[in-house]
């Protein structure tokens, strides 16, 4: 990690710009309105300040510029400014997209209200048909139940003695097992 003291003014300006770019433009912002993109005027103000710092740094170190790789530093600065411009443009595109979404939402809302009204009307129109079908099916269901109840009662009457006999046999078997188990235990 490079410290601020060991850096040249141009490198310091580049580092300041990259930190600003990362904190305010790349990383998500934490604020009361976190959905809002950073203000383009604030970005432009900071860009101007960063450019001013670079110009001052170049002026202060004009004597030592001969020893440096100027095209590389200029290329780095150009890249950072291009990234900033792209970020500002992307925020403008995001705000335009949000505007289109809001406009679409306002256009769709009346349609959904009309669909809801039609659904309620259809439901009201279906109520008489449903009640009519219920009136026709109810006697058939009652008739079917009346026909099957004697059969169910007859089957229950036939199975009741068998179930009682099975229960008596199981109780007798259980008692036999208990008695034989007691006989196998040593006397106390």
UniProtKB/TrEMBL annotation:
Domain of life: Eukaryota
Protein name as it appears in the record: Apolipoprotein A-IV
High-level lineage: Eukaryota, Metazoa, Chordata, Craniata, Vertebrata
């Amino acid at each position: 990690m490079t410290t601020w003291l060991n850096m040249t003014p141009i490198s310091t300006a580049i580092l300041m710009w990259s930190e600003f770019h990362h904190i305010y433009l790349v990383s998500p912002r934490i604020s009361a309105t976190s959905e809002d993109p950073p203000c383009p005027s604030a970005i432009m103000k900071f860009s101007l300040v960063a450019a001013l710092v670079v110009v001052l740094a170049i002026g202060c170190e004009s004597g030592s510029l001969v020893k440096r790789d100027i095209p590389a530093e200029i290329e780095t600065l150009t890249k950072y400014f291009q990234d900033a411009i792209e970020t500002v443009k992307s925020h403008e595109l995001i705000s335009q997209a949000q505007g289109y979404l809001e406009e679409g939402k306002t256009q769709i809302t009346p349609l959904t209200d009309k669909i809801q009204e039609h659904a309620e009307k259809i439901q009201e129109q279906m109520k008489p048909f449903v009640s009519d079908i219920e009136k026709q099916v109810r006697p058939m269901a009652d008739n079917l139940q009346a026909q099957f109840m004697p059969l169910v009662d007859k089957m229950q009457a036939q199975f009741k003695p068998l179930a009682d006999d099975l229960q008596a046999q199981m109780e007798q078997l259980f008692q036999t097992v208990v008695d034989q188990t007691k006989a196998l235990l040593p006397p106390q």
